[in-house]
Sequence to fold (1656 residues):
Amino acid sequence: MGQSSDNKLKIFNDPVYGFINIPDGSVFDIIETPFFQRLRHIRQLGMSHLVYPGALHTRFHHAMGAMYLMGQAIEILRFKGYEISEDDALAVTQAILLHDIGHGPFSHALEHSLVKGVTHEELSGLFMQRLHQTMPHSLENAIRIFKGTHPCKPLHQLVSSQLDMDRLDYLNRDSFFTGVSEGVISWDRIIKMLNISDDTLVIDAKGIYSIEKFIIARRLMYWQVYLHKTVVAAESMLTNILRRARQLAMAGETLPASAALSRFLYHDYRLHNFLNDASLLEDFSLLDDYDIYAAIKSWVVHEDKLLAYLCRSLVHRKLFRVHMQNEAFDHNQLSHIKSRAKEVFGFISDSELDYLVIEGKSSNSAYDPGASGIMILSRDGRLNDIATASDQLNINVLSSPVEKFVLCYPKELT
Amino acid sequence: MGQSSDNKLKIFNDPVYGFINIPDGSVFDIIETPFFQRLRHIRQLGMSHLVYPGALHTRFHHAMGAMYLMGQAIEILRFKGYEISEDDALAVTQAILLHDIGHGPFSHALEHSLVKGVTHEELSGLFMQRLHQTMPHSLENAIRIFKGTHPCKPLHQLVSSQLDMDRLDYLNRDSFFTGVSEGVISWDRIIKMLNISDDTLVIDAKGIYSIEKFIIARRLMYWQVYLHKTVVAAESMLTNILRRARQLAMAGETLPASAALSRFLYHDYRLHNFLNDASLLEDFSLLDDYDIYAAIKSWVVHEDKLLAYLCRSLVHRKLFRVHMQNEAFDHNQLSHIKSRAKEVFGFISDSELDYLVIEGKSSNSAYDPGASGIMILSRDGRLNDIATASDQLNINVLSSPVEKFVLCYPKELT
Amino acid sequence: MGQSSDNKLKIFNDPVYGFINIPDGSVFDIIETPFFQRLRHIRQLGMSHLVYPGALHTRFHHAMGAMYLMGQAIEILRFKGYEISEDDALAVTQAILLHDIGHGPFSHALEHSLVKGVTHEELSGLFMQRLHQTMPHSLENAIRIFKGTHPCKPLHQLVSSQLDMDRLDYLNRDSFFTGVSEGVISWDRIIKMLNISDDTLVIDAKGIYSIEKFIIARRLMYWQVYLHKTVVAAESMLTNILRRARQLAMAGETLPASAALSRFLYHDYRLHNFLNDASLLEDFSLLDDYDIYAAIKSWVVHEDKLLAYLCRSLVHRKLFRVHMQNEAFDHNQLSHIKSRAKEVFGFISDSELDYLVIEGKSSNSAYDPGASGIMILSRDGRLNDIATASDQLNINVLSSPVEKFVLCYPKELT
Amino acid sequence: MGQSSDNKLKIFNDPVYGFINIPDGSVFDIIETPFFQRLRHIRQLGMSHLVYPGALHTRFHHAMGAMYLMGQAIEILRFKGYEISEDDALAVTQAILLHDIGHGPFSHALEHSLVKGVTHEELSGLFMQRLHQTMPHSLENAIRIFKGTHPCKPLHQLVSSQLDMDRLDYLNRDSFFTGVSEGVISWDRIIKMLNISDDTLVIDAKGIYSIEKFIIARRLMYWQVYLHKTVVAAESMLTNILRRARQLAMAGETLPASAALSRFLYHDYRLHNFLNDASLLEDFSLLDDYDIYAAIKSWVVHEDKLLAYLCRSLVHRKLFRVHMQNEAFDHNQLSHIKSRAKEVFGFISDSELDYLVIEGKSSNSAYDPGASGIMILSRDGRLNDIATASDQLNINVLSSPVEKFVLCYPKELT
Fold:
């Protein structure tokens, strides 16, 4: 562990769990890298703070929290007699700490806007590889766990599955900072019920109610927070601001922006660019919420009327009206709104209408049964998917994905 | 309000809600009566503290908490423009405060054991009547609200319905003191969503998720606390101890007990006895958990071997084994256990076997749709039962009563 | 660990800490003994529930909580490189679990009333000795830690010092159940700051504010809870009821009481009696709050008017008026009240006056500096008493014992 | 209240208090203005999130919270019989909502850096005046309360005094989001103890312990959060970055920055400028944390080596070392560090040394007795300053301002 050994005892205050220890010097060193520190400036919940003013927490805090839960999970699994070597414990801790390091500004809200076709998981993988190459500590094992190529499957499941430490922490944390008590889960009980059977991470039968509650809480958080109408409106506007800005950039217009943001506005990068040009990941790592929001503030007076309108609306919180419904929107209704838009916004061409009348879909399933479902370990040793183990609650209903059609447009149009 | 006006400002510390004000001098006077003070010695959750050591809270505290919630509910309904007169506000407050005053020792656990065929609601009615007669304050209006004969139906529903202040408080309180976070409900949001429509207490559409969560939490509390196996075992033993004691009493045996308890052991009272003999309610009001448990402790050395065995087992926490299952127990299995019982407990006659091999049923439904269901008020003013308003969650599954067959017997028999 | 090894995983819900694991089969076996189970029926805070209705928590729950904190403390000390053997870890856990097992009914309120001149610590020692003799597990090491004869001083300090796990738990727990948030302490931070230096349990310099807060919280709890006027009144009445009952018993009067309570009412036992007669500890172990309160309820109609009056006043919560002041009460004032008492209570002789006009003293010091003070470990390795280490707060003021003169008498006398 | 009346029922989730109602349409309209919305982007605690990752909460949230507490305070004062007209209740609510609207980026951290000699209170006054002129609602009364010229002194004290709703909320909120439980105060009890006597906002005698705790908590928060070494380091760096940037700007250097920030970098405005040029307040209102931090990120590669070094150190969290002590720093020690600085940073001139070796002072007093002290209302109606009313705690010690000398410099210099 070398010179950083006295940092082992470093403690973070966390309003969610009380205190978080840094379990190891190498982990501390990862946290200190600029790659990781940038997560301090990337909000976990994008624009949700417009509805829930407390929801300002960041990917940094979430990663620390997930690391804390991993420590608890390792302890309980060892307590139940499952051997986890020191090396594996360290690797799975590094893996969970880094699982989200690939997130860009505003987390999911701008995924696919700045860099098309590259998921944040792929970017996390690239960052982990880079850290592995540049730090004195090997991350090989952590990367294998993250990617699911490590021979011990439950370690991967602790990092990425329907019951991973990521989900447990984000439900806890999002519920805590939004103040939406409907999202409260019994994370400590769930972790106490973790077990391993048949080379799979499972839940002891006594934990079945906690899992039901966890699935329901997740669903409630979707509708009450993640897909809250106002949040959807704000994030649609944000996405379309970036889309418009890139369109202008590609057309050669001048757009005030930070150097790093400019690079991504004026070029259309794909995964292979990251693999061929090491500087690209470096520049991506300079981006955070500040680049985006500061640019948007400056574009409020941009000469492109459409961009300026969108930015002004977002900054002054004149958010679009949102409709969400189970069926596709009626064609006539859409036509009507669009012709209203052309009336009200005379400067808009037909091809630009979809910046103002924004159609989309949102969907979620609280639980996906099947190959990677949550398995309940009965007292007699059998494993059952929670969807069948729960004889009371209709998990099947919960687990069908709910898809809603979304339509956003300026309130002036109504 | 007379002389007790300075008590208006009296404040109780409540770990659940922070502080509880006594809203009125007449309410304070009710709280000070011996009838109400006895609730300090009647545990809300019977024997559940054997599983959840924190669950020692009493009917007294619950009644205070429900009163607090009533104050919040009145405030929000007035805020929404519904006029509630000062008199009605006071009466509904008195009604909720007194709704459980008829509970006897160990609350539900001994209901129907000491006084057969008389529910605690009937006893509450008798106590309210007596207070009305003996106090300077009229309780007439409160009694009408309690009994559902008051013209304003929503007032009754605040006291007694599937969404009354009673349920909200007991879920809050039981969850808090047991430490079972699965039972946490968003009571403050639910109360903020209360409304009145069509002369019915309803919930605004925005509160639909909170109601789903409330119903689910209630179900989880049933299985995790109220019908927890160990609790069921202890309460079955308690019931059978009282049953045996009465049997011995009726047969003329001597049983150490307090004077009040003796009266109920040596006589078999029905509702009409309470109506004909005012002293009976007085004596009932002297009974609390202390009479029962102190008697049981003294019966540990009773010469009736069966009674002594049952008492010893309960006091030393050698609780019976419990099986709960969806189907009736197999006849052969029962026969086997019973013959084992006769072997092990040589002093037992055939007719006494059911003191040791105890069969029963427990059932609950988290929600009852229908005439008195929870109605959701949509934005367009229509009312829908939560069972149909909730398109995601299968409330119908939740609302079918779940019935389990229960079997308890001494661990020595396995 | 033998046959009870599967109990290792037994988990208690605790609303204060979430979950408490039983760390070891031998610990589980201790918890299952009748000696320990009786603590379920002894309230931690005597009669405080009359003021704080939530304060019904028991010595059982407190002992479990202190055990939980001990587990945390052992972990942090090991983490900081201090070696604690498995045997010592188990012994210190047993010691804290059993540190209060000698408490009698109503905890401190009746200490010295039932058994004069024998402290609860001495009784705890006797119980530990008895368990050591009768259980298959040796408690020798635990007893040495408890008594301070174990060579490792910090282990004793974890069990009994100004910063022991006992105090940390009771402040947490009493604050939680009373709802007095003034008593909240940062127990997790305090434990994280524990260290060992110079063979002494100490606090790292960074923890100095938490210790200041801990001392202040303790003082606040004294005045707001432990020495709350109404509590003092109720406990004075309780003590005097027992004193009167014993006086009557010694004079040959008949007093309904449980067999165990009778033995202690009709005899005056001292420490040597416990050493000479093993059955005495057995009988003491049968006593809990139920014996006392059930007896008091039955004495409400005792023919001794004084006893009946005192019992009636307590049961019906007609509590005495209390005055607390810094100076001794004025002789004339006392004379006046006493002559009023003789007027109002004609049946009282002069020698019985002190049952109704009760004088006393209460004192507390939030902190005792000196030989066993709380030592702060500065970064350069020096140790300082918190009283000098805290340059801001006047710990010296806090640490002078505050003594108040107390006077209680029936409200009829004013 | 006009057209916005349906917003009366708008509810914000607040993790600290549960829910916050908007009490009135005019209040809602104020919240919707861009002036107020900008507070969403100004962190309450400047750079404290570098130490406490949860401390990302904003002035927006704090203002909402203080408004919530004001509602509670009005209710309790009315309950105690003090008449507060609807108009005054609205005005004091508006006043507390707007009390901090003059804060600039990073709250206190940059006060006096961007605009010298103008306090945030003065700016709040200017904003309130502007809103009064531009909104349909009069704010005249609110402004008088804010400035202390309203005839009812207690209303001003609710907004600005040692016991105002501002302090209560920020202690609650800062403690909550940092996770520093030492800062927890019993705000609900304090508010319940508010009273008015002698035309002054006072505390009932029963609240004395809560006030002691409040003062102590405030002191602890100073040392543990507000003046935490790492926070002091980061904020010193931030201040010096702005100072350097202005120096360069004044010297005609080019500095990438938003338009609004540029105006304040390239000019030296005083209070009279705000009074003479309405556009200045408009431009100030465009500034938030994003302008500053985005600029700092872009200055990381500025050609001025000193500015670039400072920015790089802050962005990459290579924070300066901090010493805090009671005495002034030794002249020799300072000389030594400064000559080290010249060695290590060859590009630094003598006059620039104080950008790297930063001297300062920090001070706080937890409580100021005297003319505007917290007055305790004894039962007999007398008023005493808490400093004398508290006979136990040495408030005099707490109330002497604690001054510490501060020295920050790059870690490379040691």
Summary: The radius of gyration of chain D is 23 Å.
